[in-house]
Write a structure and sequence with these properties.
heterodimer, A: about 110 residues, alpha+beta, four-stranded antiparallel β-sheet, two-stranded antiparallel ribbon, 3 helices, B: mainly alpha, Rna Polymerase Sigma Factor, Chain: A, 18 helices, 2 strands, about 0% strand
């Protein structure tokens, strides 16, 4: 088994302007995602949604600045840490991960031995 | 045996057995890089051993044993500790699987791993040529006119990703097989096309790439006899390659319309037709099979004018339905021009979105040819100039310059 981080990149303005009904749909999709991942044989070890990038603070060389590390149209908005057999299974899980206003990036966790 | 005989036997073994030796060694090495090194070493030691003891009866088995032994030795010496890479993700069993596991050949695993969708297309191509065909990095770099360090870095990065991201070493399950096989066929077709009409450089053809692509597609067709698109691609390659010798004359590009059809390789065409029939049997044909069918109609025609253009346009319609590519639309327009005249072809081309084909120099070249046939010399000249600016290899450039000069 290997661990992967699924990073969810989405357009924040989508959520800022979404109706309560759409937000509810998204919440439910994430709820289902947990079960779907398990049914594929993978395991979700953890995950969180993040506050929008407007709340981010960046520190570079001890200089503190207001805002995200990089300004992008689609920003990191949440992540899941999963355990999967291999990249194929991790990608299958990633495909199910809700990200209607963007997409996800799947990164293997580095193992030090 | 004399040195030349051994070298010939070794070259033959390299072409026929490399993939099998490497694929069998991966199981012992647990790492693509190490398997590649051991396979390379096995071929090097074969030269000396075979000169001393004669060429073994089964060179592939000799090479596999040698390469696997080197992999075992390497593990024993702890050479792997040097590389901080995790091991290749093998399905539990370190031993070769029983031959009846449905995909009884490690070469298939190797091919599918090299063409994994998580790798960029150019990395898939480079990996396939290096690991499956055993082409040297220098040669691959030369064939694709990429600086060798760039190509080497591309290979290293891809192998690192396979190991670090745990890209599995296996043939995909039935549910994803169609998509994954399409990626493999696309890579093979890309290698063939790069050899058939070199994307850039002085030469029009790179026969080595053409031959490797055909070898590999033949192998795939043997390993996956039920996959009709594999046969379709093989048929396409055979029928296209049958025209190889007539596609250029003293380095000058000769168009299909002007090729000497008596010099087409009839044996290859016949084999291509038989293969195509197999691909067409039993269901809707895929994009490679349909392209092969189009190539086969051309191969049967007594001349360019006396080609069954109605059937060709019909086949392009079916092809567009399964593969709505602007390049297909362009080729269809050329066929329409033969069927209904250049004006009809131009109308089809006008409907093409330039955006999707921006920089594709065959579009202005096709426009120029139709305008020339309509006698619209000025507009034809403009289009030839645009095509010239985009043409990659010298033979195509000279051809377009000739046409431009003929306009006066």
């Amino acid at each position: 088994m290997s661990q992967y981080l699924i990073l969810i990149y989405e357009d924040e303005s989508f959520y800022a302007t979404a109706s309560p009904q759409v937000l509810e749909e998204v919440m439910q999709a994430h709820g289902r995602f947990n079960e779907q991942a398990t049914s594929l044989g993978a395991k979700i070890l953890g995950g969180h949604a993040l506050q929008p990038t407007g709340t981010a603070t960046t520190i570079r060389n001890d200089v503190v600045t207001d805002g995200p590390f990089a300004e992008t149209k689609e920003a990191l908005g949440g992540y899941y840490l999963i355990e999967a057999d291999d990249l194929d299974q991790a990608l299958a899980v990633g495909k199910l991960c809700p990200a209607r206003a963007g997409g996800v990036e799947v990164r293997p966790i580095m193992v030090f031995d | 045996m004399d040195g030349a005989g051994v070298e010939a036997a070794l070259a033959e073994a390299h072409r026929r057995e490399w993939a099998a030796v490497l694929a069998a060694t991966v199981r012992v090495a647990g790492d693509l890089d190490l398997a590649e090194d051991c396979t390379q070493d096995a071929f090097v030691s074969a030269l000396q051993a075979w000169q001393r003891d004669g060429v073994p009866r089964n060179p592939g088995a000799w090479l596999t044993t040698a390469a696997r032994r080197k992999a075992v030795d390497a593990h024993r010496r702890g050479r792997l500790l040097r590389s901080k890479l995790p091991l290749l993700h093998l399905d539990a069993d370190p031993e070769p699987p029983p031959p009846d596991d449905g995909f009884g050949d490690d070469r298939l695993r190797l091919i599918f791993t090299c063409c994994h969708p998580a790798l960029a297309r150019e990395a898939q191509v480079a990996l396939t040529l290096r690991l499956v065909c055993g082409l040297a990095t220098t040669d691959i770099a030369r064939q694709f006119l990429v600086p060798e360090p760039t190509l080497a870095a591309r290979l290293t990065r891809a192998k690192k990703k396979i190991a670090a991201a745990h890209i599995p070493y296996r043939v995909p399950a039935a549910a994803e097989l169609a998509d994954r096989l399409d990626a493999v066929l696309t890579v093979l077709h890309l290698v063939f096309s790069a050899g058939h009409a070199a994307p850039s450089g002085e030469q029009l053809m790179r026969p080595e790439l053409v031959e490797r692509a055909i070898d590999l597609t033949r192998l795939l067709s043997t390993l996956m006899p039920d996959e009709r698109e594999v046969r379709g691609l093989l048929a396409l390659m055979l029928v296209t390659d049958a025209r190889r010798d007539t596609r250029s004359d003293g380095g000058e590009l000769v168009l299909l319309a002007e090729q000497d059809r008596t010099r087409w390789d009839r044996d290859l065409i016949a084999e291509g037709h038989r293969t195509l029939l197999g691909a067409l049997r039993g269901g809707r044909p895929g994009r490679f099979t349909l392209q092969a069918a189009i190539a086969a109609v051309h191969a049967q025609a007594p001349s360019y004018t006396d080609t069954d253009w109605l059937q060709i346009v019909g086949l392009y319609d079916v092809l567009l339905a399964v593969w709505p590519s602007p390049v297909v639309r362009l080729n269809r327009a050329v066929a329409v021009a033969m069927l209904d005249g250049p004006a009809a072809g131009l109308a089809e081309l006008a409907a093409l979105d330039d955006g999707a084909l921006a920089g594709y120099h065959y579009l202005p070249a096709a426009r120029a040819d139709l305008l020339r046939r309509l006698g619209e010399t000025d507009r034809a000249r403009e289009q030839y100039a645009t095509a010239l600016a985009g043409a990659g290899n010298d033979a195509e450039r000279r051809f377009l310059q000739r046409r431009l000069a003929e306009l006066g």
